[in-house]
Amino acid sequence: MKEEIIISGFGGQGVLSMGKILAYAGLMEGKEVTWMPAYGPEQRGGTANVTVIVSDEPISSPILSRYDTAILLNQPSLEKFEPKVRPGGTLIYDGYGIAAPPTRTDIEAWRIDAMDAAAELKMMKCFNMFVLGALLKLHPIVSVDNVMQALRKTLPERHHDLLPLNEQAILKGMELVRRQ
What we know:
Elements: E1 2-10, H1 15-28, E2 32-38, E3 47-55, E4 67-72, H2 75-81, E5 85-94, E6 108-112, H3 114-120, H4 127-138, H5 144-154, H6 163-176, E7 178-179
Parallel strand pairs: 1-4, 4-5, 5-6
Antiparallel strand pairs: 1-3, 2-3, 6-7
């Protein structure tokens, strides 16, 4: 198993931390992982992205030009990375941040209304976990238990009170994802 993933959205949406948690969970399962963030001075409000590779075999390079899966949370990210999803690959997008949905017919496009759910459930700090839940439903490359352990290890202790909400968001994201 090898999954090459790009996660992209506005700075502040939890893109980098989503990738970090996914990579950490992979490490906890004994998998080979890479986590390569990309952001500039526009981190808050500008576009940020992270490439994550989770594999059972050694990874030759963390630099990718094509992806198995793209998680795209805003229109600029969709425009930039939709063409870079391999034919037969998966594209997951948040309905709130995308005005013109994906158009490719040679990939599987999945929509999750994570921002709407996060606002409705008053769980805005967990927005990225709804999206991570969608990914784990479609590609269970790591277990939810290990994601929760990764959260426990990476979140500052002062935020550990949010762990149950994060788990709830992951499980709800698994329910909300639907084919475009």
